[in-house]
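Need Mitoferrin-like's 3D structure for a figure. Predict it.
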Amino acid sequence: MTEASTQTQNPDSKTTHENDGLGFWKFMVAGSIAGMVEHMAMFPVDTLKTRMQMLGASSSCSGSATHSSHHHHQIGRFFTSIMRKEGPLGLYRGIAAMGLGAGPAHAVYFSVYEICKKKLGGNEPGHHPLLHAASGVVATTASDAVLTPMDVVKQRLQLKSSPYSGVKDCVLRMFKEEGVKGFYTSYRTTIVMNAPFTAVHFATYEAMKKVLNEISPENASEERLMVHVMAGGAAGALAGAVTTPLDVVKTRLQCQGVCGADTFRSSSIRLALKQIVAKEGYQALLRGLTPRVLFHAPAAAICWSTYEAMKSFLQHDPDGHPSPQL
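Structure prediction for Mitoferrin-like:
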């Protein structure tokens, strides 16, 4: 799915049916579990990012941390404030929503990604970064349609003094007060954000993988986990940083009106950017930059280690015999 799935699915790995001995559905299972583990493990960092991005929209949304241009100091203040006033569980509010959304969204991502890659010729021998990137963008568009509603619920629950008691309460109240449209207010922004994210991620991934292979050609292999982790981590960090302004807009749209947060006349990205800058300045578009980068860098390592472990597990048939390897 979206950013996470970009990290999970290596564009050049030979993880197709023919050379891993796995059925198509097993790739979906492995990817779904990897995505869920990644999001759950990194959830506290995501909570800090959401609180920071809502700073300026409403004082009751984010916490007591002051406006500061020093992002690393701001992270420390937000973390300390949450731990002191809400306890460790405050970092995990909304995690159930992400758990419900990440699995199905990753399943959609992998199925659409594999179908598009096959149709476009991305499974042919050789490197096809543009074809893989295009497949990733299409897959992202489909998976975001599944994840966005739960992402909205997740972010509203992450807010300080959230008016919702839990996932069910949030879903029912949103549906009653805002209708289905409320769950997709940020969908367009999410797509616009994840398209360049995917492009930057794949481009950086290819460049980093090439550098790593040149440093130690006798050891570096496209199928080696560390190459995936290091290249994917760098790609995720850069892509996350570049798309931070759009992520701020997405967060503001998803949480508008909650806890007294600013509202927007429409879901227009341009109007939202203009309104945020007019009130808070351009620096507001970089809020949450550090935790966003800190999220996507290790996320690749978590995603890939889980993905490879699940592939290894699923490569055994019901009788316990390993599937043939090519």
